Amino acid sequence: MNDKTKDAFSADTALEAYWSAAAEGRLLLKKCEDCGEVHYYPRPLCPFCMSANTTWLEASGDGEIYSWSVERRGAPPYAIAFVALPEGPTLLTNIVDCDLDALSVGQKVKLAFETREERPVPVFRLA
Amino acid sequence: MSIKGKAYIAGIYEHPTRKAEGIPIAQLHAEVAKGALEDAGLGLRDVDAYFCAGDAPGLGGLSMADYLGLDVRHSDTTETGGSSYLLHVNHAAQAIATGKCKVALITLAGKPRTGGAPPGRPPMAVQPPDLPFESPFKPTVLNIYAMVARRHMHDHGTTAEQLAWIKVAASHHAQHNPHAMLRDVVTVEDVVNSPIVADPLHRLDCCVVSDGGGAIVVVAPEIAAQLKRPKVRVIGAGEAIKHMRGGKVDLSHSAGQWSAAKAFEEAGVKPGDIKYASLYDSFTITVLMQIEDIGFCARGQGGRFVADGGLISGVGKLPFNTDGGGLCNNHPGNRGGMTKVLEAVRQLRGEAHPAVQVKNCDLALAHGTGGYLGTRHGSGTLILERA
Q: Which residues, 6+ apart, have CB-to-CB distance to B7 below 8 Å?
């Protein structure tokens, strides 16, 4: 991420609460108070019904691997995954501190945070 | 209103270069434009509509119309990544059907191999809203497509060997194409023994990175009637976008399921009627997903369908990418949609290499998947017939 990009997202007032919670190790999702759908990544207008009546919902931190891959080019290799949350959304993330040769679809995982390019971002460890 | 029979593909051209050292992208666009117009028997002054996508330099359609010297009354710069050119043919047919133009020129050129944009995501002036929620985790074209393959293996028992058959089939075709980057026939063992780049995809599950380009001329029926080349009629088209739906991620199918259904409905034909298919082959998994999405076999049966030479011309039930495709021939500008249309037209004209020409090829399908199969992508399907 270059400086300009960082500035653009830091200046986004709709994401202030998200980044504050992330700094405390909490992952916030968005819930629509009109249609009831939970979405991620967070948007002020619900992507299911376009209502502006969206509120924050804290994720439990549980999850399950929906799919995964280990990028082997370059070093070090890393695991990328889609993790399905019990709250509804599936998010793109990394599985960290794990045996890269022992991952599988359906594994239970637990939320953690790592700092990437000066931002706290949600990653997962095997539960 | 339908486009069925309202437009014809009158000219095509594929740039022979695979490594355009010292040649700017605009010049490649001009060379393919000239080639396709000459193929059609038309000239610069006949063109009244221009189509290009994100590979065009500068202000896209404006910069290219300027460089090429075009006077157009219709233009379209629809951008869905590598599938853009299939959508352009659809949009050109729509514009012709509604009287907005009569001769539409579509061009693509790119040189990821010798400069310009690196392979992968094109540079974006305004960053996408998903960026801080995805880029920290280092998604790549490879690992995003790989996750689709992983899920297919989990759901349906698809194997690496089955995926490898797709590359094997492409290599059987590429051996006959003197312009192809990879002309050696490979085996299933060669593919599965090549290094893993992103589990479960191997190096040989990936397309080539090449410079080059291509162009298409789409014309109104009254123009086609005056031209000497074999006539290829556009009889059906469909397009669709699939994305992450606010977190309801579903890797079980692509947008091709929707775009193909629309194209078949418009054309009034069925998957079983298709004699030849050009399928987007950025990776072997891309082909497998599209085969199921289009309906060439049932969901989950793609692995069995492609195994044992199922896609080899003259051997299998569905000859595909007889030019060698993106997997072996050419993937100009990291965008495979243009070359998919070109080989489908060659097949319908009877101008594919004799070793891979499908007998009595009167109905063909060309399909593209642009963007990222596992996150957000645009699909385009064309159904073409020999007139």
A: B92, B93, B96, B97, B218, B219, B220, B221, B233, B234
pLDDT on residue B119:
44
User: In the sheet where B103-110 sits, what is the strand order?
Assistant: B74-76, B49-51, B103-110, B212-219, B7-14, B232-242, B377-386, B363-371, B276-279
Under the banding of pLDDT at 50, 70 and 90, the label for residue B18 is very high
A44 part of contact set with chain B, CB < 8 Å: no
A49-78 per-position pLDDT tens digit: 999 999 999 999 999 999 999 999 978 999
Distance set, CA B46 to CA A5, B96, B223 (Å): 44, 14, 10
Q: Which of B131, B158, B248, B252 to probe the A interface (max A CBs under 10 A)?
A: B248
Name the pTM for this structure: 0.96
Tell me the chain B residues in contact with residue A70 when contact means C-beta distances shorter than 8 Å. 143, 196, 198-199
E strand or H helix at B147, and its extent?
helix B141-156
Whether the CB-CB separation of B341 and B319 falls below 8 Å is answered with: no
Tell if the CB–CB gap between A88 and B138 is shorter than 8 Å: no
Closest by CA position to B202, among listed B175, B174, B162: B162
Statement: residue A7 has pLDDT above 80: no
**Nearest-angstrom CA–CA distance, B256 and A91:** 23
Distance, CA of B91 to CA of B97 (rounded, Å): 10
| Phi, then psi, of B125 in degrees rounded to 5 | -65, -40
Per-residue confidence (pLDDT) for residue B127, from 0 to 100: 84
Over 80: is that where the pLDDT of B145 sits? Answer: yes
